[in-house]
Design a protein that fits this description.
The protein is of the alpha/beta class and 334 residues long. The protein has helices at 15-26, 59-66, 82-85, 89-109, 150-168, 194-208, 228-240, 257-268, 292-298, 306-323, and strands at residues 7-10, 31-35, 50-53, 71-74, 113-119, 171-177, 180-181, 212-216, 222-224, 226-227, 247-249, 254-256, 273-277. The chain binds nicotinamide-adenine-dinucleotide (NAD).
């Protein structure tokens, strides 16, 4: 890969895609950035990129997106936190059109390499029934019992990547992300994930003086969280590697949701009364990433501890809320 070769990032108006575009531009790559949202709604938009608004469920739009590009990153999906994916299974599954048509376009346009952003939601439910379970290994995706809707779409699309590599010679790479967090993501409106939602709730409590917080479930469910900078670095490392099978990209630092709230309360220097909403969407009981494979192949481990990443995330969300900014209005110039 030389700096003359063009890269397309699909889903560039979203959280991870926006950070990836930024990183690639900083390294000097020519970048095309594609998203279906109007560009004023992109979380980050860089004038140096070739920015296109296209609905990538349509095959001809995928050809427009990929044409002339050597490497394709697919980060476009209709997704959100548990509150969104548990209630919008059909919409989540429709993202299968995006990856399928992008793979076809990459093949037709002669792209050299293709990246698919998969998820820990592909892992079998019966391996995640206790809070203290060991980290999930790549082989734990089978026998298949993924998250209904969103997880099935990811698992199917992983397999499509494999078959396009085996049958058509397209070089595909797949990462299974485990909960990514950081600035320039969504923190309200229903698609936000736990780290951003907890920051927002703590900030609201602090600013309003109503020192109460609602927590989904009993707070004893476990997760691990990866800071966005680690995600963007790991994503590119996987894309450049010869790792053919889907591989975990996440943190093995497992915490309960209650512990995550402790961290944010500590950052905010506030103590809140916790109200547990036991019937809220809460996902599996326990989940974190086993990083044995990625350590072996890439010597990769997250470099940013949870406390440090949450400080940066909290500070960014605080500034947004304090200034009354809606993330729709954030436009960055590189
Ligand atoms: P995001 O919602 O912030 O970004 C996704 C982007 O895709 C959005 O900007 C959306 O407008 C765009 N999109 C949706 N449908 C589209 C369409 N038809 N055509 C063009 N663009 C479309 O999500 P994210 O957190 O940046 O996630 C990026 C990828 O990583 C997704 O595939 C997601 O499933 C995967 N992933 C993310 C996490 C995480 O913790 N954030 C975890 C696991 C997997």
């Amino acid at each position: 890969m030389t700096k003359n070769e063009k890269i397309v990032v699909c889903g560039a108006g979203g959280f991870i895609g926006g950070h990836l575009v930024h990183s690639l531009l900083k390294q000097g790559y020519p970048v095309r950035a594609v998203d279906q949202k109007p560009q004023w709604q992109w979380y980050q938009r860089f004038l140096e990129a070739d920015n296109l608004t296209l609905d990538l469920r349509e095959k001809e739009n995928c050809v427009k997106a990929v044409n002339g590009c050597d490497w394709v990153y697919n980060h476009a999906a209709d997704m959100g936190g548990m509150g969104f994916i548990e209630l919008n299974k059909g919409l989540c599954m429709l993202s299968v059109l995006i990856n399928t048509h992008l793979l076809q376009a990459a093949q037709v346009c002669g792209a050299a390499r293709f990246f698919f952003a998969s998820s820990a939601c592909v892992y079998a439910g019966n391996k995640q029934q206790r809070p203290d379970i060991p980290g999930l290994k790549e082989e734990d995706a089978y026998p298949a019992d993924p998250e209904d809707g969103y997880g099935w779409e990811k698992l199917f699309s992983e397999r499509m990547c494999r078959h396009f590599r085996e049958d058509f010679g397209l070089q595909t790479r797949v990462a299974r992300y485990h909960n990514v967090y950081g600035p320039h993501g969504t923190y309200d409106g229903g698609r936000e994930k736990a780290p951003a939602a907890i920051c927002r709730k703590v900030i609201q409590a602090k600013l309003s003086g109503n020192h109460e917080i609602e927590i989904w479930g009993d707070g004893e469910q476990t997760r691990s969280f990866m800071y966005i900078e680690d995600c963007v670095r790991g994503t590119q490392d996987i894309m450049h590697s010869e790792i053919l099978e889907p591989i975990n990209l996440g943190s093995s630092e497992m915490v309960t949701i209650n512990q995550l709230v402790d961290i944010v309360e500590n950052i905010a220097d506030v103590h809140l009364n916790r109200r547990y909403k036991l019937d809220a969407p809460k996902g599996v009981r326990g989940r974190s990433s086993d990083n044995t494979l990625i350590q072996k192949y890439l010597d990769w481990e997250p470099s940013i501890p949870l406390r440090q990443g949450m400080e940066k995330t909290y500070a960014w969300i605080y500034d947004q809320m304090k200034s009354g900014a809606s993330h729709d209005s954030i436009v960055n110039r590189f």
